[in-house]
Design brief:
There is one protein chain. By secondary structure, the protein is of the alpha+beta class. Helix content is 25%, strand content 26%. The protein has 6 helices and 14 strands. The chain has helices at residues 11-25, 44-49, 114-136, 158-161, 169-180, 222-225; strands at 2-7, 29-33, 53-57, 65-69, 74-78, 90-95, 98-104, 140-145, 184-185, 199-200, 212-213, 216-220, 228-233, 249-253. A 6-stranded mixed beta sheet has the order 3-4-2-1-14-13. Helix 3 packs parallel to helix 5. The chain binds one DNA strand of 18 nucleotides through loops.
Length: 257
DNA sequence: ATGGCGCGCGCAGCGCGA
């Protein structure tokens, strides 16, 4: 079973790339973030024709998440239960007995902003919910754009980024709190090349200079981690014409689909 | 990372992302 996550930065613009990517990789599940598309405009026909069932939760201009799956999507749930949030950032579904949780964590803007406080509070709500969710679903994968680089090796220039949003200590502690639930970072289950990132700024020729951060992650519950056989980041997608600023992240599980 | 780009909205230029 291959599962993947990709912040597409507008599904409308990136749909051709998503279709091409699906055709090439044939993942079982692809989680999308920043679709920036209201549900009424979601490109369901094109994705269905490509062989994928879709669950989606979007809004105009900002945010928006979707789960694409070859197998039926069951028990679809929207948002964090009991958490009032007008921003469409969370979508969960069960596929082939695996609980897929797709998140678009708030960016936080800067450490002295209200948005940063919203981000930390939001992560706390997410963690509390997942603690419960893991009891119901021992096979759980948390995929998405976390907007957190967990370690220095996930940052092209850790000195410059120290204390900055995406790499500040409280954000990294929030990431650690997710790991403390028993989740494991699938990317780090395997030996990886150095300086592997999932996001590069559009500016400053950041991609060409590999000035990136690893902020998109696939965390796995213990049961899934023990079935994990590969994990990688598809940098190739970032080389496309009109690319998203994020690259897809992929994990392969030893599970029958 | 002082900004530089790309996106949505909407028709100019701004807010936002990361």
């Amino acid at each position: 079973m291959m599962i993947a996550t990709w912040n597409v930065n507008s599904l409308k613009v990136r749909l051709p790339q998503v279709l091409e990517w699906l055709a090439h990789y044939q993942p079982d599940v692809l989680c999308l973030q920043e679709t920036k598309t209201e549900d009424v405009n979601f490109q369901l026909a094109e994705l269905t024709a490509a062989g994928y069932q879709c669950a989606f939760s979007g809004q105009k201009t900002y945010n928006g998440v979707a789960i694409l799956s070859k197998q039926p999507l069951q028990e679809i749930s929207y948002g964090i239960p009991g958490c009032v949030d007008t921003q469409k950032r969370v979508l969960a579904a069960t596929v082939n007995g695996v609980r897929i949780v797709n998140v678009y964590v708030p960016n936080g803007q800067s450490v002295d902003s209200d948005k940063y406080q919203y981000k930390l509070g939001w992560l706390k709500e997410l963690t509390a919910w997942l603690e419960v969710e893991l009891k119901t679903y021992p096979n759980l994968a948390l995929l998405g754009d976390y907007n957190i680089a967990p370690e220095a090796r996930d940052v092209h220039d850790p000195k410059a980024w120290e204390g900055q949003v995406l790499f500040s200590e409280p954000e990294r502690a929030a990431f650690q709190a997710l790991l403390n639930l028993g989740l494991q970072d699938s990317f780090r289950l395997f030996e990886q090349p150095e300086k592997m990132f999932s996001w590069w700024d559009y500016r400053m020729h950041a991609f060409r200079r590999n000035m990136g951060l690893r902020i998109d992650h696939i965390l796995l519950s213990a049961a899934l981690a023990s079935a994990c056989k590969a994990a990688h980041i598809d940098k190739e997608a970032r080389k496309a014409e009109r690319p998203s600023d994020h690259a897809p992240v992929i994990t392969e599980l030893n599970l029958k689909v």
